[in-house]
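Incident log, support desk, overnight shift.

02:14 A customer reports that sequence design results differ from what the structure should imply. Their input is reproduced verbatim below. On-call engineer (initials T.W.) acknowledged and began investigating.
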């Protein structure tokens, strides 16, 4: 069986890999597929492996931040946090040629 997903999934070969499960929810170290299966997530990013999916303190911080401010294009203004982060990068040795208007190159 071959995957019908139009999305490239790293480390899979669409010609031989079965259908890619569609994940509809996460909790701690678990993924929940659209068909109800629970799948142990042993290959996620460092942060998910360290804290788990939807780690309550991280989710609370995200909620609090989006209640204040969701997005500001740097062409229209600058978020205080963006300026602070750029300063930290500069302290690590990046200069103005490494820092673009929309982020780090």
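02:41 Re-run completed on a clean worker. Output:
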């Amino acid at each position: 069986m071959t995957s019908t997903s139009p999305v490239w999934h790293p480390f899979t070969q669409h010609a031989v890999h079965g259908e890619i499960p569609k994940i509809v929810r996460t909790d701690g170290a678990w993924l929940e597929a659209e068909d109800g299966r629970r799948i142990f997530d042993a290959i996620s990013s460092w942060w998910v492996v360290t804290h788990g999916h939807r780690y309550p303190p991280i989710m609370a911080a995200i909620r609090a931040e989006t209640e204040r401010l969701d997005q500001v294009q740097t062409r229209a203004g600058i978020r205080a946090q963006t300026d602070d982060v750029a300063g930290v990068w500069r302290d690590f040795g990046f200069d103005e040629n490494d820092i673009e208007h929309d982020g780090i190159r």
